[in-house]
Amino acid sequence: MRGEFPFETIAACLLPDHLHMIWQLPPGDSDYSGRWKEIKSRFTERWLAGGGTELPVSESRRKRGERGVWQRRFWEHTIQDESDLEIRFDYVHYNPVKHGYVRRPWDWEHSTFRHYVAIGHYHKDWGETRPPKLAGLDFE
Known about the structure:
By secondary structure, the chain is of the alpha+beta class. Helices cover 33% and strands 9% of the residues.
């Protein structure tokens, strides 16, 4: 899909009921919606073909071609500066702890956290306590 709709994944975290992504799009391109539509569509097709299940949807959602695999909306934010990026970067990686899945981000295998430990951005034990700059942040 990246060949058709290029983007670079800066950070990611996959949780049982939602996911977080930080992408860098090409200059002048801000079509997050188009990319999410394609990802959701292609994933749903493969998911259902492989025996995955879906939740029931209303008649109005069905008429719009929506399926019961994904939620309708997503939260989008354009990063303003390095400080803004770092806050959201930490939020993505701290999310499994926030939701009670693990004690520290290192213990969650389904994110880019371990990659950033390997390259020295984080220490393995980062996030055992809520990082101060994330206090009060709740943009799910």
